[in-house]
Amino acid sequence: MMRMINKQTGSGIYDSETGEELSEFIELKNTGEVISWSWVFTPLKKHPLKEPFAWALILLDGADTNFLHAIKVNSENKMKTGMRVKACWALPPKGSITDIKYFEPI
Length: 106
Known about the structure:
Layout: E1 2-3, E2 27-28, E3 31-40, E4 53-60, E5 67-71, E6 84-89, E7 100-105
């Protein structure tokens, strides 16, 4: 399970309709579905992986919105919209989005 947390004072997350600050967090599984993706043939130094990879919008199981992260996969031909993926974690965790190194196919 992973918990989406903002370490700033307050949640820093607001209801799009009312503008009220949200403070309730839910735990999400570390698995999800690829909604859309784009292949990176030549990664830049600032990218999370040194070898070619995909940027993907991922809908985590239990979430109601997508987020962008890297998927480590051997070739562009292995990427598919709708494929299932799981998070691979960096150790030790630091409490930030970089705790997820990348996602990989299940």
